Amino acid sequence: MKPMDLDRDSLTRRSEIVAALREIVPGEGVVATEISRRAYESDALTAYRALPMVVVLPETVAQVQAVLAYCHKYNVKVVARGAGTSLSGGSLPLEDGVLLSMMKFNRVKEIDFDNRAAVVEPGVANLAITRAVEHRGFYYAPDPSSQIACSIGGNVAENSGGVHCLKYGLTTNNVLGVEIVLITGEVVRLGGKHLDQAGYDLLGLVIGSEGMLGVVTEVTVRLLRAPETARALLIAFESCEAAGGCVADVIGAGIIPGGMEMMDRAAIAAVEEFVHAGYPVDAEALLIIELDGPPVEVDHLVGLVEAIARKRGATHCRISSSDAERLAFWAGRKAAFPAVGRLSPDYFCMDGTIPRKELPNVLAGMGELSQRHGLRVVNVFHAGDGNLHPLILYDANKPGELLRAEEFGADILRLCVKVGGVLTGEHGVGIEKRDLMPEMFNEIDLKQQIRVKCAFDEKHLLNPGKVFPVLHRCAELGRMHVHEGKLAFPDIPRF
Fold first, then answer.
1. What are residue 347's DSSP bridge partners?
2. Is 159 found in the same domain as 82?
3. Residue span of the structural domain in which 472 resides
4. Average pLDDT over every residue of 100-127
5. How many other β-carbons are positioned within 10 Å of the β-carbon of residue 482?
6. Where is the FAD-binding PCMH-type domain (predicted)?
7. Most exposed of 51, 171, 332, 421 (fewest Cβ within 10 Å)?
8. Can you name the residues that pair with 175 across neighbouring β-strands?
9. What mean pLDDT is reported for the chain?
C-alpha cells in the first residue's frame, strides 16, 4: 500500500481542531489521547494500521452536520466508521484526519409492518434488524458472516451481501432510502418507503460508495416475510470441478436457491474441527444449498437438486430434517473465517467475483498461484453468484510474507478480471484493491468515476486515498484534452 502525503497544516493545528470538535460534541464525544485512539487504528484488514488524528462520536444529526461543516471550512479530512468490520481497509483512519464513528447512532427508529419497512440508524447491527421484527414473521435479508457485529451503515457503504444474496440480493436490493450528510453539512434524503423515486437513481449511487460521497445518518430497509419453510442440502464431491459443475447445473435448471455456498477441503476440515457441524472431512469440496418457500415446492426442489448432485458424482448428500439441523449446516459456514484463523497467525480474505462457468478454471489457477507464491490458500465462497473469498494464509512475523501475501492476492484478483469478473463483490475496494483498479478500468473510466466524487466532495475530504489509485483534483479533470493537436468533438460549441 502506497501511503498518502500527510497534511502538515492539519497536524500543526491538531490542538485547535480537537478543541473545536469538543465544542461541537461535548463530554466524552471526542477521543484525543493516544492510548484511546489505538482502539480505532485498524479495521478488520489488520495488516494496515494508522493512528487517527482524533476520533469523534456524535450522537445527533446536528452534530454530524457541524463536524462536517467545520472540516469542510478548514480543509480537514474525514473518515466515517461503523463497527470496523471492513475487510478492504475502507474505514482505515488517517493520521492527519478526523475519524467519525457513527456507533452512537444505534436506534431502531420505526418499524412499519404495513409497508414492510424499518427505519434504523447506521450504527444498528445487521442482525439486530431481524431480531427486532422476527416476532411478526419478518426479517432483513442480507446476512454477511459478520452480521452479529457489522453495522447497517457499513453495509450501505460497501453494498454487503451474505450467504442468501443469490435469491434475495445485496444491500442495494434491500435498502429503500437513506439520509446522508454531505461534507458541507447539508442533509439530503434519498428514497423512502415508496418503491421508486423520480429523477436520477442517487440512492443506487450512494450504496456502495465506501463513505466517499457523504455520511449516512439514517437507513430505511426493506423487510421480507420469513419463508414458510426452508431445507438445506449438505453435498460432498471428490473434486472442486465437480462441485462447480453442480452449481452451474442447478442454476441452469432454473432453480434459484436461497443460498448456495462452497468450501474446499482445507476449509471443511478447519470448520468441522471448530464447530462440529457434521461436515464430511474426506471431501474435496462441499456445497450447502438451501431451498425455501412453500413446503410442497421446497420438497420438489430438494429432490431435483439431489438428483443433479448425484448425476455430478456427489459422494455424500445429507438433507436437513429439522430447522435446527439446517441452522447447524449454516453455523459451520458462518464460522469459516474464525475457523481458518486457527490455521495461521494471519490471513487475507479476498473478494473477487467471476462468471460461474469459470469457477473450475479459477480454482485451478489459484492452486497454481499458491505454488508460485509459496503460501496456502483456503477457499470459502458464495458459489451461486461467483463471489469468491479465498483466504491467503501467512505469518506477518516472517520477513517478506506479508508482501508475498499481497502479491498473491493481487494475482488472484487479476485472474478474476481476466476471466470476465470484477475486483470485488461485497467487501469494497478500500485500500486493499485501490492500486488494482486500472486492471479493470482505463483512465477514462476512472476519471468519470472521480467526477461523480467531485460532484459530492470537490475538496476530496471524505475518505481520501481510498478506491482511486491516483487522486485527481476536480480542476484537473475539467481541463480540455488535446490529442495530436486536435480537440475531441470539435463540433461541440465551447464558451
1. 393
2. no
3. 447-487
4. 98
5. 9
6. 48-226
7. 51
8. 221
9. 92
> Which residues share a beta bridge with 78?
98, 462
Q: How far is CA 220 from CA 71, 178, 229, in A?
A: 27, 6, 27
The CA distances from residue 340 to 130, 168, 329, 332, 435, in Å, are 27, 27, 17, 11, 27
Crossing angle (nearest 10°) for helices 265-275 and 323-334: 120
User: Does residue 89 sit in the same domain as residue 119?
Assistant: no
H or E element at residue 97: strand 97-101
In a domain, residue 437? The reply is no
Domain boundary pick from 101, 128, 160: 101
Looking up residue 360, the CATH number of its domain turns out to be 3.30.70.2740
Q: What is the pTM of this model?
A: 0.91
Cβ-Cβ contacts under 8 Å for 14 (sequence gap 6 or more)? 53, 54
Are 423 and 475 part of one and the same domain?
Answer: no
Assigned C-alpha cell, 426: 461485497
Q: Is the pLDDT at 495 greater than 50, yes or no?
A: no
Cell of 11: 497536524
Tell me how far CA of residue 196 lies from CA of 159, 167, 455, in angstroms: 19, 21, 23
Q: Would you say residue 20 lies in a domain?
A: yes
Question: Bridge-partner residues for 234, per DSSP?
Answer: 288, 318
Candidate from 132-136, 231-235, 333-337 with smallest mean pLDDT: 333-337
Please measure the distance between the N-terminal and C-terminal CA atoms of the chain and give it in whole angstroms.
42
How far apart CA 198 and CA 201 sit, in angstroms, is 8
Do 333 and 350 reside in the same domain of the chain?
no
